[in-house]
């Protein structure tokens, strides 16, 4: 092996080691990357199944070479781990489709709140299934953080939440349940140093799942306008590839409740991005909500220890 190859491998190993020592930071970077999802979905203006399918399908050409390189470096993964990642992708497809439907029925505000109920479901499942009892700090910070999510969503002062509140709430709660299941199952598929491989399997599974859901409910368009396709490609790169690569690498290194909590930074970053891209000026209540979320997450994350 050439000296340059040895140096490159050593540098790569050093980067992975340093990243492994800072899982909270890695998760936060991932949450910031996926914060563009809502804005890009709105700019794409495609249907729920169409958005979910192209978001995942367009990410596959980016993930395949990363997974192949990882396979050569780290070796193959067990069949059970691959099956688990595929199962996670099924729930991710359901999450993506239901989330878009929730936005259409009750608006982005309440859909944001309902979608972030995942942190409650993940914490409860981690306690019941894996004996990961939430810390006292987590229990105290969660109501404050969730109040911040409500404020950031823009619900305060709004007289209505869309034309179909019951359907929207059902879609929103379903989104949270599917999202929680995806996070918990994906973590089970990342028990090895592999990151791109599990994400590739889950993303491919989600693309197929979205295709099936779109075919069943008749809401899939395989030839969206080029303008929409451009925004969906950007969504695939920033969120589905870069963002979830960071998040997937941090999942096995953090307690389940903490990893899901870190994703609540997403609506804060989305607020700033919407102001920058869509000229949606946040209110003082929304800014205050953002401070509550950041403060609460920092209070918990500062004392989070990497999972064994």
Structural notes for this entry:
- Pfam families: EamA.
- This is DMT family transporter.
- This protein has 308 residues and is mainly alpha-helical.
- The protein contains 14 helices and no strands.
- Helix 6 packs antiparallel against helix 9 and helix 8 packs antiparallel against helix 14 (284-301).
- The longest helix is centred in the first third of the chain and has 37 residues, at 79-115.
- The protein is globular and about 50 Å long.
Map the helices and strands.
Layout: H1 3-20, H2 23-34, H3 37-44, H4 48-57, H5 60-74, H6 79-115, H7 118-130, H8 136-152, H9 165-188, H10 196-217, H11 226-250, H12 256-262, H13 265-277, H14 284-301
Helix pairs in contact: 2-11, 2-13, 3-11, 4-6, 4-10, 4-11, 5-10, 6-8, 6-9, 6-10, 7-9, 7-12, 8-14, 10-11, 13-14
Organism: Candidatus Aeolococcus gillhamiae
Keywords: Membrane, Transmembrane, Transmembrane helix
Domain EamA: 24-153, 168-300
Largest sheet: none
Morphology call: globular
How much is the average pLDDT?
Answer: 80
Provide the succession of SSEs. HHHHHHHHHHHHHH
What is the count of β-strands? 0
Instruction: Give the amount of beta strand, in percent.
Output: under 5%
Radius of gyration: 19 Å
Number of domains: 1
Q: Percent helix among the residues?
A: over 70%
Q: End-to-end span in angstroms?
A: 34 Å
- Poorly predicted regions are 1-16
Number of helices: 14
**SS-based class:** mainly alpha
């Amino acid at each position: 092996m050439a000296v340059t190859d040895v140096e490159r491998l050593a540098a790569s190993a050093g980067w992975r080691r340093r990243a492994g020592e800072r899982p909270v930071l890695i998760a936060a970077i991932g949450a910031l990357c996926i914060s563009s999802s809502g804005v890009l979905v709105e700019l794409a203006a495609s249907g729920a199944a169409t958005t979910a399918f192209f978001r995942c399908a367009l990410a596959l050409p980016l993930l395949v070479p990363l997974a192949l390189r990882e396979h050569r470096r780290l070796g193959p993964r067990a069949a059970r781990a691959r099956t688990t990642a595929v199962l996670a992708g099924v729930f991710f497809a359901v999450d993506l489709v239901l989330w878009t439907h929730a936005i259409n029925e009750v608006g982005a505000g309440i859909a944001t709140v309902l979608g972030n109920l995942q942190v409650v479901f993940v914490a409860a499942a981690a306690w019941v299934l894996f004996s990961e009892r939430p810390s006292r700090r987590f229990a105290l910070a969660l109501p404050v953080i969730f109040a911040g999510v409500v404020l950031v969503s823009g619900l305060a002062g709004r007289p209505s939440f869309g034309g179909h509140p019951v359907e929207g709430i059902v879609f929103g709660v379903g989104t949270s349940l599917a999202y929680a299941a995806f996070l918990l199952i994906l973590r089970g598929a990342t028990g090895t140093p592999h990151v791109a491989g599990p994400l590739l399997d889950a993303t491919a599974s989600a693309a197929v799942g979205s295709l099936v859901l779109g075919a069943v409910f008749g809401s899939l368009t395989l030839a969206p306008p080029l303008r929409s396709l451009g925004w969906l490609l950007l969504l695939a790169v920033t969120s589905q590839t870069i963002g979830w690569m960071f998040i997937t690498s941090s999942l096995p290194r953090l307690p389940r409740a903490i990893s899901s909590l870190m994703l609540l930074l997403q609506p804060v970053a989305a607020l700033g991005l919407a102001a920058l891209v869509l000229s949606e000026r946040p209110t003082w209540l929304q800014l205050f909500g953002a401070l509550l979320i950041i403060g609460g997450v920092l209070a918990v994350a500062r004392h989070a220890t990497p999972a064994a």
